[in-house]
Structures are given as C-alpha cells and as structure tokens.
Amino acid sequence: MLARRRQKAAAREAGVGQVKSMTINKKKQIVVVMRGPSAVLFRQEKTLTIRDFQSTIGPVNIIYSTRWLKRPNEIVVPGHIWIEITGDAVALEEALVPFANAGLSMLPILSLCTNAAIGEPQIEIGFDNTEGASDRDYFQCYVAPESNEIYIGRHINIESTVSFIELISKHPDSERLRRAINQYRLSLDHWRLGRETMSMAHLWMALEALTKAKIRQEMNKKGIATQDELAKNFGIELKKLDSYIRKDILLNGDAECYKNAKKASDGFEHGFLGFDKIIELSKDVRSRMANHIRTAIFEICGLEKEALKILTNEPFDKPIGHWPVVKYLRGKLIGDGNKLSKNENAYPFMKWKPSVKSTNITDDGKFNITISDTFTAELAEGIKFQPSSVEAWQAG
After folding, report:
1. pLDDT under 70 in the chain at which residues?
2. 337: left (phi over 0), alpha (psi -120 to 50) or beta
3. Which residues neighbour 1 within 8 Å (Cβ) at sequence distance 6 or greater?
4. Which residues pair with 378 in a beta bridge?
5. Residue 317 lies inside a defined structural domain of this protein
6. Nearest Cα to 293, choosing from 194, 169, 193, 183?
7. Are residues 228 and 290 in the same domain?
C-alpha cells in the first residue's frame, strides 16, 4: 500500500515536472540590423565591435560598419552606417526595441570621437538566427536606399575611439558625461550655415552638463571635500563657482567665447534677442566653443596623450555635419529677347546630371571624390548659356 502511494506521488511529481518544462521559454538568438545616414565612415572591411553590452533585456554584441556601395565603372562610395546587434531573447518582438536602443547608445561617442554628425538609424531587419531551428520569425521595415547625392564624410580612428569607450564606461561621472556627449552630437546635427543658433544651444547645454563633473574632478585633484572649500581655493564666492569652472577651466579662459555663447543661449531660451543677433553671436564663437568642450570631455575622462593628440588634431579638429555637397553653377544668359525659357518651362533652366568620376582613399584616411557633372540648357530659341564657373562646397 505504501509503495503504491509512493508510485502515485512520484507520478504526480513527474507530471508537474513535465508541465514546468513545457512552460519554460527557451531563449533564441536574435539579430537586429539598423542603418541610417552618417558622416562617420568606417573603412571597407573594418568594423568596431562592442561585446557584452548590457541592453535592458540582457547582454548583446554590437558591430558598427559602413555600407560601401558599388556604382557604375567600378566606383565604390560610402553609404549608411550599418549596425548589427546580436543577443538572446525569448522572442523577436521582445528584442527589436531593446536591441535597437543598445545599438543607438554608442552613436554619440562615435560622433564625438570623429567630430562628425550621425543621423538617426532605423531598424531595417530583425530575425531569429537560432542554430538548428526550422521555424524562424522575421521582421523588415522599409528604409529608403541611399541617394546618389554626394555627402561629406570622415573615417573614424577605431583604436582611439575604443580607448575612449573603455575610459568613459568606468568613469564615476559616466552618466553626466554621456549627457554632455549627446548634446555635442545634437550640435553636429545642425552644423551648417544658417543653423548656428541650434548648434550653439546644444553646445551650451553640453557645457552645463560638464560643469558638475569638472567640479568633482577638481575637488578630488585638490583633496577638497566641499564645493564651498573649492570656491575659496579659487578665491571666489560659492555662487560664482559654476561660471568660473565654465569660463576659466572648461573654456580655457576664453572670455569672448563664454560671453557670446551665454548671451546667445540665454537670448534664444528666453526670447529677448532677435534671431539675426543670436546667429551673429553664435557664428563668431561656435567652432571655438565646440573645440573647448570636446577637448574638455576627453581630458575629464583621462584620455591618454597619444589618443588625445590624434582626436584633437587634423582631420578631427573641425566639426562636420551630414549634408550633401553644395554645388553652384554661374554664368551669363546671352541673346536678344525678353523670353528666356522654353515654352514648357516657367524659367530658364539647366538640366543638371551629376556623376562620380573616381574615388580614392589617401594614406592619411581622407576619402577623395572626383565629380563630373554635365549640363543641358533648357532655354528659349536664340538664348545661349555662357558658363563662368562650377563650384562644389562643403555645407557648414
């Protein structure tokens, strides 16, 4: 009788065990792929890999690279930045957003280290890549292909960037520094003529985010316990400490830069200055402001001298946005008569056909493009076009 009861109990336990094993969700290997516009370029066949990055649902591996696009006549041009995120998750739908957020999290640092803008990549593909599976979920979003327009770009220095990533991940003020870096990235999104106001607004917010981190660094360096003591050490009142740190330390005593940037930022935020005045103030000091802030971030993180020298000298010393190359055609319309355009056109017009003639990468990492454009005049009979110049300019 006792043995029979034991057999029943064992059977019940076995049954419960079976139910449990059926309800446990086995994790799958998920791959999410993103792409989007970027002035940050990786050389062909080169990638940057971040391993065991903690997403909100677990560790992932992230690979950053550039899509290199084949054009006619064996010409290869850079396309979007490519981000591949791989990790384990219960289901594809559960992984899409957390994995994408993990991939996006490093973009401000890549932008800062290269001093070049990165747009907003989108999820393009997600799929179950579990080994041995025969039934896999798949997701795809339409992302427009890259256009034939020519954009300015800059190759990343992977080694120096990795050094910086390692430093900031361990820094006690990492979160605050990342806020400043993100503001710097946003300033690069507006880095072109006519958008100086927005660039300066984000640079000023980056400066504000850095202030407390620099104060704590100065306190630790001097062995001082309170901000009041630090202010006395500098020979100033406590209420002036923040402004002193910004102007005299983070901006290296550049009084004109501090004055104009603060006035432009306050005038924009509180609406007491006209946009023409704000643009004028911003234009005068924007590049200097960016240089001071970027260098300060590297120094606060303790970037070693060789990497600091690389990232603060040519070509990385000049910020670039992500805008098409601006091209101008100048000349004269020659001929008698007041009618200048073809009958079907409202205005005189040149049909412009751009093309890339050649591309090459120099030893120092510069990407050179030779452009060959052709023009067909759409003009009234008796009117001719006499060209005087064709110009190509970097926006910004």
Report:
1. 1-25, 363-365, 367, 395-396
2. left
3. none
4. 349
5. no
6. 183
7. yes
Do 129 and 51 share a structural domain?
Answer: yes
pTM: 0.85
**Domain edge (last residue) among 265, 282, 312:** 312
Which two tokens mark 159? Answer: 């080694």
Residue 396 has a pLDDT of: 63
Q: Which residue has the tokens 């509180």?
A: 270
d(CA 233, CA 231): 5
d(C-alpha 119, C-alpha 98), whole Å: 19
Whether residue 291 lies inside any domain: the answer is yes
The DSSP bridge pattern shows strands 138-140 and 122-128 to be antiparallel
Cα 207 to Cα 296: distance, rounded to the nearest angstrom: 9
Instruction: Please tell me the distance from the alpha carbon of residue 45 to that of residue 30, in angstroms, as a whole number.
Output: 23
Give the C-alpha separation, 101 to 108, whole Å.
12
Measured CA to CA, the distance from residue 306 to residue 147 in angstroms comes to 38
Which residue in this structure is represented by tokens 């001082």? 224
User: Residue 245 and residue 267: Cα distance in Å, rounded?
Assistant: 22
Q: Within 10 Å of residue 377's Cβ, how many Cβ atoms? A: 15
Amino acid letter at 80? H
What tokens appear for 346 in the block? 């409202």
**Paired tokens of 67:** 């899509």
Tell me 116's DSSP state.
B
What's residue 364's pLDDT?
66
| The token pair that represents 385 in the structure block | 């076009």
Q: Are residues 124 and 224 in the same domain?
A: no
Q: Which long-range contacts (CB under 8 A, 24 or more apart) does 341-344 make?
A: 341/378, 341/379, 341/380, 342/378, 342/379, 342/380, 343/380
**pLDDT score, position 12:** 46
Cβ-based neighbours of 75, under 8 Å, separated by 6 or more: 356, 357, 358, 359
3-state DSSP call for residue 41? strand
228 and 170 inside one domain: yes
Q: What is the rounded CA–CA span in Å between residue 103 and residue 89? A: 16
Q: Does 2 fall in a domain?
A: no
Residue 150 lies in a domain: no
**Structural domain containing residue 100:** 25-140
The residue whose two tokens read 């901006």 is: 251
Domain identity same for 170 and 307: yes
Of 124, 144, 112, 54, whose CA–CA distance to 83 is shortest? 124
Q: 3-state DSSP call for residue 48?
A: strand
Q: Residue 121: CB partners within 8 Å, gap ≥ 6?
A: 34, 35, 36, 38, 80, 81, 83, 103, 104, 107
Judged by DSSP in three states, 132 sits in coil
